[in-house]
Amino acid sequence: MLRSGMVPAIRSARSRRAMSIVLLGIVSCQMGGCLRSSSRAGHPEAGVVSTADRRIRVRLAKDIPQFTLAVRGPCLIDDDQSHPLLEPLAELGACIVRPDPETPDGLLIGESRVSGPVMRVLPNRDGSLSYGDREYEDREYRGYLVVKREGDGFLVINVVDIESYLRGVLQGELPKYFHPETYRAQAIISRTYALYQRYVNGPQRAWDVTATTSSQVYHGKEGEGSKANEAVDDTAGLVCAWDSPEGRKIFCAYFSSTCGGMNQDVANVKGGPSVRPLEGGVICEYCKASDWYHWPTATISKEEITRAVKPFLVKGGYTHADKIARIESMQIVRRTKGGRAVRLRLVDKNGLTVDMRAEDFRLLINSGRTIKSTWFDVVNEANSIAFTNGRGFGHGIGMCQHGADGMARRGMKAGQILQHYYPGCVLVRAY
Ligand SMILES: [Zn+2]
Q1: What is the pLDDT of residue 272?
Q2: Among the ranges 23-32, 315-324, 331-340, which has the highest mean pLDDT value?
Q3: Fewer CB within 10 A of the terminal residue: the chain, N end or C end?
Q4: Are 93 and 102 in contact (CB under 8 A)?
């Protein structure tokens, strides 16, 4: 859950601290078929993440029963506390990692047994690590991997330099045909978003961001391309900040695909105190070319709506939620000044009513793919509810990506684009 009110101050140069990666001692152990020991003494150089300030922990998977792993070149495998689990390897051939059935926290790397529950795979050369699971085919990643056995499954985290991370993010977030200046704007807000997440979630959580749309889509080294790489390099270290009453801070730089004409206040969707750059109400005349500036009427059966909404209401502790019968009608009880629905009132066949956030409702129906945004009108029909006059795609907070591209094509620079969508935003260097 994002907590928009907790915003980190920009780190001062004095707080910068080089990440210390302790060199490891050699131990001898049983080696499996997929492992090949390093023939040279000493250890691989661990400079795959430059400093602690630039380190981001990306959760690749959770609760997976096994995964494939390979390192094309020398690597270390330790317990993430600098205690080696295996002697340094010259390479790690493709193998399957799975829980050791004979111990409650051990791991099997191919046929080699290592004690767990935490394993770090630290390649000598950046980008030589390959990982795959049930979700994704094998992909190459920069940085290193931290694996935690949790019961019969694994939590897998890619610890990576944030600049490298961003290279693997941008093409997952923007169409390839978007303007280079749009890529630069996106690089700045993706960097801001990731650092904000790292700050609010803190070290007590094992990861800072996920690799999916719940944070930002990250494809590792395979996601990189010249346009993304140049945008990251051109904006290295730059983040969005604002002058809050408590001083200059970064903020959670939300963005969405298409605003439909005006963005909205983060408080309508996420709650929390006011943050000037995210207060919404910014008129956008630049996203009209988007396929989703208008979207076609979506008609959803009342059964489907009830099926989707009721468990959410019960889980969320809404009054009378467990007594809700078939939803019969819906009305919009609050809109933004632009016309986007903020709160909905649902009425069941017995006349019970419940009010809920429009954005929560939208996301419950086919994960938000059918009702593209909360900018709609509601028409109650006999057995279904129609969402008409739809505009925009996404939550509509902060930068409109298609609008940003429209601005870039009119010659505007990343800084101008960001100051347009995040009023009061200033660009500063985070490191
Ligand atoms: Zn727009």
Answers
A1: 80
A2: 331-340
A3: N
A4: no
Q: What's the one-letter identity of residue 212?
A: T
Q: Which residues contact 26 (CB under 8 A, 6 or more apart)?
A: 41, 84, 87, 88
Tokens of 120: 């770090």
CA distance 160 to 164: 7
CB 185 within 8 Å of CB 169: no
Q: What is the distance in A from the centroid of ligand 1 to the CA of 423? A: 15
Residue 194's contacts (CB-CB under 8 Å, 6 or more residues apart) are: 56, 162, 165, 166, 208, 209, 215, 216
Q: How many whole angstroms from 272 Cα to the centroid of ligand 1?
A: 24
DSSP one-letter string for 199-211: HHHTTTSS-SEES
Task: Please tell me the pTM assigned to this model.
Answer: 0.84
Positive or negative CA dihedral for 272, 274, 278, 283?
Answer: positive
End-to-end CA distance of the chain: 26
Per-residue pLDDT tens for 400-431?
999 999 999 999 999 999 999 999 999 999 98
Per-chain residues with Cβ under 5 A from ion ligand 1: 259, 284, 287, 400, 403
Tokens for 282, please give them: 């910014």
Q: How far is the CA of 284 from the centre of ligand 1 (A)?
A: 5
Q: How many CB atoms lie within 10 A of CB 114?
A: 21
Nearest Cα residue to 387 out of 410, 366, 402, 412: 366
* Residue 65 CB neighbour total at 10 angstroms: 11
DSSP-derived secondary structure for 76-106: EEE-SSS-BSS--EEEEEEEEEEE-TTSSS-
How far, CA to CA in Å, does 185 sit from each of 24, 242, 281?
Answer: 41, 16, 20
Q: State both tokens at 39.
A: 């023939």
Task: Measure the CA–CA gap between 205 and 192, rounded to whole angstroms.
Answer: 19
- The distance of Cα 245 from the centroid of its chain, to the nearest Å, equals 28
- 398 CA → ligand 1 middle, Å: 10
Residue spans of the domains in the chain: they are 18-163, 165-290+396-429, 294-391
Lowest mean pLDDT among 47-51, 99-103, 167-171, 360-364: 47-51
- Assigned token pair, 237: 């270290």
Question: How buried is 426 (Cβ within 10 angstroms: 0-12 exposed, 13-18 middle, 19+ buried)?
Answer: middle
